[in-house]
């Protein structure tokens, strides 16, 4: 994922230019195999400023998209006209977005089945498909923007799966840098802060774990005027008790 490209069976890459045509293809590909209604495509292209010639112009764009596909091996017939709109129907394995979704779903099932090593491998393969922001450089209307937001959130959930699988294997030292990045990108997510604090503690970095808690407290106080959740306050007390000669705390993972 990244800039919109098409790779032929011979391995030739075509970097599609920023245009209304690629915008249409983007909508059709993220909904591969499904009929995308004409009014949906018109909304994507023009939003609320729909010209009178919108339908005719859309048909012209589709015509040029077909001509572009026709120049590629096995490209003829990929863009279909259906009663209420248009569709692109290719194998899901040929679309990075679909492969990414499949691999993340596979990782989630593997983790639930007690296979953290396999889950990590699936997530790594999924994340390797990212080569930059989704549909970088392409104009985005409401429809594509919603899909980009969904994929960004899906990528976040993939990273959470990687962290969970790694922590289950006791790889807290490997997890800490990733958690620090996630916390920086999602400063109000208390669950991420809690995982970072626990991982630091399990690595024997108690002072850093306490500082991570204080950092969370400052963020929540400044942004929302609230204190950390009770379970996080309890976690802080357990960290403090660890250094006072009491028995080490039992931490839920």
From TrEMBL:
GO terms for biological process: phosphorelay signal transduction system; regulation of DNA-templated transcription. SMART domains: BTAD, Trans_reg_C. It comes from the Bacteria. PROSITE patterns: OMPR_PHOB. Residues 1-90 form the OmpR/PhoB-type domain. Belongs to the AfsR/DnrI/RedD regulatory family. Pfam families: BTAD, Trans_reg_C. Residues 1-90 bind DNA. Gene3D superfamilies: Tetratricopeptide repeat domain (1.25.40.10), Winged helix-like DNA-binding domain superfamily/Winged helix DNA-binding domain (1.10.10.10). This is Regulatory protein. Keywords: DNA-binding, Transcription, Transcription regulation. One of its GO terms (molecular function) is DNA binding.
């Amino acid at each position: 994922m990244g800039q919109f490209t098409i790779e032929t069976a011979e391995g030739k890459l075509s970097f599609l230019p920023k245009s209304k045509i690629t915008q249409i293809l983007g909508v059709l590909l993220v909904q591969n195999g499904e009929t995308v209604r004409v009014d949906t495509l018109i909304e994507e292209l023009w939003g609320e400023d729909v010209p009178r010639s919108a339908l005719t112009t859309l048909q012209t764009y589709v015509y040029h998209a077909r001509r572009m596909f026709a120049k590629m091996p096995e490209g003829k017939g990929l863009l279909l006209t259906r009663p209420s709109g248009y569709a692109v129907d290719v194998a899901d394995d040929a679309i990075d977005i679909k492969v990414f979704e499949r691999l993340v779903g596979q990782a989630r099932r593997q983790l639930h089945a007690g296979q953290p090593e396999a889950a990590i491998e699936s997530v790594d393969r999924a994340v390797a498909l990212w080569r930059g922001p989704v549909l970088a450089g392409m104009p985005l209307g409401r429809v594509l923007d919603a899909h980009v937001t969904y994929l960004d959130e899906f990528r976040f959930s993939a990273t959470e799966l990687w962290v969970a699988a790694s922590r289950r294997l006791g790889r807290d030292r490997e997890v800490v840098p990733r958690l620090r990045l996630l916390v920086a990108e999602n400063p109000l997510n208390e669950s991420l802060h809690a995982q970072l604090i626990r991982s630091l503690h399990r690595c024997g970095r108690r002072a850093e774990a306490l500082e991570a808690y204080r950092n969370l407290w400052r963020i929540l106080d400044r942004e929302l005027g609230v204190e950390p959740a009770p379970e996080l306050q309890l976690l802080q007390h357990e960290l403090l008790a660890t250094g006072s000669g009491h028995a080490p705390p039992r931490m839920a993972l």
